[in-house]
Design brief:
CATH topology of one domain: Gyrase A, domain 2
Bound molecules: (6S)-5,6,7,8-tetrahydrofolate
Radius of gyration: 21 Å
Structural class: alpha+beta
Strand order of the largest sheet: 12-13-14-11-3-15
CATH superfamily of one domain: Probable tRNA modification gtpase trme, domain 1
Number of helices: 8
Largest sheet: 6 strands, mixed
Length: 369
């Protein structure tokens, strides 16, 4: 295999922390929302064990914010998600499928309600800003839609609580999962949420003041020494074991939220109006024809860089593997697959072919753990 690097440019944006993580030995990047997102610091397996035991600081500035502000902000946000936000509260985060008129998944962001007329959509990798602008223009909504200069630092891992307490005070530990509030660092207030794209616990700091953010970055490593803090990034194995979905990998615009296991977030029986409500009602009544499931495969290594066809014992193509990696916990490869009806039952045996070698496996429920 050839070795290559991602060529940087204005279009492939750096983050305020890029120079820091390059000094700290980042070994690969992916591109996420037109921005550099670190993908490894050494091997994914080393990063996995460290994340589960200690604490990591992640440059996840690529999780961009789409700010929706103005008189019709709440109406626009509700228009693009199938989750009923009518009882949502300021100071809370909401995981919300964004869907189009056909029920196709546009994105699966965390939505922060900053005020009744001010929201942040913390997006996965697709151009939600353009989609929201199109809807707002078509509906003549009075809103401003823009990408503010917010650059998230995620603090993840079991020791994240101790580390954050030392910097921001004991109160930060009182925050509930998916709550957020403002906490002061050296005279500057930062929005901090109890959230993050791992299930090892932690926080996300929505840095608006770049200068203070860099000072905070350095402070986290200084204070974090005794907790064995390391720079890190979203970890393929940990997020698979935890059942966290990756837009563009596991799910996409050709999937609807019912096929992706978001049933509880599809509130077609509520009063609220949203795009794709009729489409989703119809899909619900007719039943889905494919479904996202876990798979376990009897091998110790796999690299999924495109969809891999999945077959049953009679060589019928029954679906596709969309992500996968070796799990030290299960001692086999675990993956996320889109399987056709009726092959998504957990008793289903599967086969995949990689480089002319056949591997056997089984369908299982999500999340794995
Ligand atoms: N944090 C922030 N922005 C993000 C992500 C994030 N944007 C991109 C991407 N991640 C969006 N996708 C997800 C997917 C899952 C979760 C968060 C963002 C998640 N899920 C929990 C779970 O599945 O257990 C909780 C869901 C819930 O309680 O509703 O956290 O990570 N800022």
């Amino acid at each position: 295999m050839s070795n290559f690097v991602i060529a940087k440019s204005r279009r492939v944006r750096s983050t305020p922390y890029t120079s820091r993580i390059e000094m700290q030995g980042v070994t690969s990047y992916t591109v996420y929302n037109h921005m550099l997102l670190p993908a490894s610091f050494g091997t994914v397996e080393e990063n996995y064990f460290h994340l589960k035991e200690h604490v990591q600081v992640w440059d996840v500035a690529g999780e961009r914010q789409v700010e929706i502000k103005g008189k019709d902000a709440a109406e626009l946000v509700q228009m693009i998600t199938c989750r009923d936000l009518s009882k949502s509260k300021v100071g809370r985060c909401y995981y919300c499928p964004i869907i189009d008129d056909k029920g196709g998944l546009i994105n699966d962001p965390v939505i922060l309600k900053l005020a009744e007329d001010r929201w942040w959509i913390s997006i996965a990798d697709s151009d939600v800003k353009l989609f929201a602008k199109g809807i707002a223009i078509g509906k003549n909504f009075q809103v401003e839609i823009f990408e503010p200069d917010v650059n998230i630092l995620a603090i993840q891992g079991p020791k994240s609580f101790k580390l954050m307490e030392e910097i921001f005070g004991k109160e930060i530990s009182d925050m509930k999962f998916f709550g957020f509030d403002y906490f002061e660092f050296e005279g500057v207030k930062h929005l901090i949420a109890r959230s993050g794209w791992s299930k090892q616990g932690g926080y996300e700091i929505y840095v608006e003041d770049r200068k203070s953010g860099l000072a905070l970055y350095d402070k986290l490593f200084e204070v974090g020494k005794k907790y064995d803090v390391k720079p890190g990034c979203p970890n393929l194995i940990e997020r698979l074991e935890s059942g966290l979905l990756s837009y563009g990998n596991d799910i996409d615009i050709d999937d609807n939220p019912l096929e992706c296991g978001f049933d509880k977030l599809v509130n077609t029986d509520s009063e609220v109006e949203f795009l794709g409500k009729e489409a989703l009602k119809k899909i619900k009544s007719e039943g889905i024809k494919k479904k996202l499931m876990g798979v376990k495969i009897d091998t110790n290594a796999i690299s999924v860089t495109k969809s891999i066809s999945i077959f049953d014992e009679n060589n019928n193509e029954i679906g596709e593997l969309r992500s996968g990696g070796y799990s030290p916990h299960f001692k086999k490869v675990i993956g996320i697959a889109m399987l056709k009806k009726p092959y998504w039952e957990t008793s289903q045996n599967i086969k995949i072919s990689i480089n002319n070698k056949i591997f056997n496996g089984k369908v299982c429920d999500l999340p794995f753990i």
